[in-house]
């Protein structure tokens, strides 16, 4: 019932994730952090089983810190993606499997912004936009229609906002709050969260109606 989204712009990446933890139809918590900092220019968002996400995220973050301490520099975005997917696929051969899907986004100082889609089997592919979770049934058509490769930060934020509005209208679970992070050459910046209060006017207004000319 959770949702993580990612959008790649001309020189930035935006990662968005809900902060809810639920079990079946029961709401348990509304302050769960699902987007984690890997380095000064890279973050990852996780979706899946709550315990698996927590344990696997901690494993990845600890190893990223160890790599930096050992070598004196961070892994690149592609290096982090390779490390994550390699361990996800390796765990499939053991008794300890993780039901975790991820989006990894970052800014490489040589190649620019990168967004990678990783599923729970360890398959990875670079994408311009994407996400995980049941709500992607509603978000995918919106991203396909409104995404533009040359969009700026505000335009990308507005596209994600359209997705969240649609979720509030049509999704059976109220996601309550969406955290957003901007990753660019300037590092990581937390953007204004999207929640029911900030969207109340847009939701109540509803879609614009077409006025027919009866003359």
Q: Overview of this structure, please?
A:
The protein has 215 residues and is of the alpha+beta class. The protein has one domain (4-205): Aminohydrolase, N-terminal nucleophile (Ntn) domain (Glutamine Phosphoribosylpyrophosphate, subunit 1, domain 1, 4-Layer Sandwich), CATH 3.60.20. The protein is built from 5 helices and 13 strands. The protein has helices at 50-71, 77-91, 136-146, 153-170, 196-205, and strands spanning 4-8, 12-18, 21-23, 26-29, 35-39, 42-48, 100-108, 112-118, 124-126, 129-132, 177-184, 187-190, 194-195. Strands 1, 2, 10, 11, 12 and 13 form a 6-stranded antiparallel beta sheet that branches. The protein has a 5-stranded antiparallel beta sheet with strand order 5-6-7-8-9, with helices on one face. The longest helix is centred in the N-terminal third of the chain and has 22 residues, at 50-71. The protein is globular and about 50 Å long. The model has no long low-confidence stretch (mean pLDDT 86).
